[in-house]
Fold each of these.
Amino acid sequence: MEPAAETSPRVQKSDEEWRRQLSPEEYAVLRQAATERPFTGEYTDTKTEGVYECRACGAELFRSDTKFESHCGWPSFYDPADSDAVILRQDRSMGMVRTEVLCAACHSHLGHVFEGEGYPTPTDQRYCINSVALRLTPAGS
């Protein structure tokens, strides 16, 4: 399945509104494409069953049954919850070519996706996502 095509975000807010809603760290990652330090995020080693939503807009992004231990320092998933949940965009920052992962609903930066690293997952993909970009809703909540 291909990720959602990049169109105008369904959730649109002014920069000022995002700054009021998000903490400085959340704003830096979600709205300015920063990266949290490895092994510091609250969901890096979480095994709780549930749904991971975008911290900015609440859209469902990933489910715990696709989360795996990659030992890379950030939560890793092998597939989004829905093919339309994320947008993939080429990222040429930092002197390399990577694939950026954005929330399809609000176009917030989530992290990057990598392929062909040899993880024993069904997709051979690693969605490397910043914890601060996510909010976990435990199953049964």
Note: The chain has a mean pLDDT of 91.
Amino acid sequence: MAEILGLDFIHPLKLFDIAKKEKRLLYTSAPMVRYSKLAFRQTVYAYGTDLCWTPMILAKEFNRNHFARDSDFTISTNGPQPPTIVQFGANVPQELARASSLVAPFCSGVDLNCGCPQSWACSETLGAALMEKRELVRDMVVETREQLRRDGWGVDKEKDIDNPKGRSVSVKIRVHKDLRKTMDFITTVLGPDQDRHIDWLTIHPRTRSTPSSTPINLEALEILTSTFGDRVPILLSGDVFALGTLPFTTPLLTPTPTFTSTTSTTVSTTTTSKPPNPPDIRTLTPLPKLAGLMSARALLANPALYAGHDACPWSAVETFLTNTARAPLPFKLVQHHLSEMCGPGMGADKRALLTRGERAGLMACGNMLDLVDFLEERRGLRRGGGGTG
């Protein structure tokens, strides 16, 4: 099927290897409800994101309803098809295995969500509720790997890294208040070193009840990466706001060039300031076993984050609009994306493409033609020096 559609895939573990050879971390985009659609995935991929996640898809509904399959997972056969991981919400091994079998021809791998803290998900024994079901999670990934193997896919991890039919199985987790429970969870899900159950692991170092406004638990992350980082590649999800101000150090995190520090097309909603100084390396937590980063909110505001931009450039807005023309999104969703991109980002650099009032004008547009004209007018004013602070 992939050959018929002209799709070409690269094994995610090969991407880890490429990033390591380039002496950098792997850069990934997080599974975000509503937002991690194809047009956005294509945009962040154009600006240095190595591996993209879909929004979480409910495996049970995906298996049973073709409308869910059509709306929840979109691929591109014309233009870039970013290396994509399909994330599922599931609590039955056969459901996850079947859904994974359906998407395997069109993606690089599948991922089980064990991190969503929303009450509706946890009440259905999905997301973070699975952190209390380590044997069930193990059974789900094992059953999924076996199903993919029966379907003819290469699921032998590093052995299939160059196999065009190689596919990955991974898990995204949170941590427990008692870190020993998290270590037991990972040990169970990971399985034996000679034939581990998962290709890699994504860790969001907050508990199910920890609000996103609370900083991630770097001590827990350091312990977990030190314990398991040699056995399986580990991604960090959480507080990845700007590459130059991450609260940890690693041999794979080198200074990244800043492309927006001299631009004259951005304005601030308050006052224009110099980019922040990098943190004192002596105060940073060392994470030598970390393999990659996963960003959510910061990438939503600045799709060019991994390309070294401190704030979203106009070119990223243009790229996103081009992608939405080829892979349409609901108009209100396009507006929200653009409002995020044109506002101040999640990092310390708070420059913005549009003022607060201008962003209100953007949200007042009633259709795509008005929205594009509005943005063109605003950018024309910036080029002509008519922008306001």
Note: The CA atoms of residues 119 and 369 lie 38 Å apart.
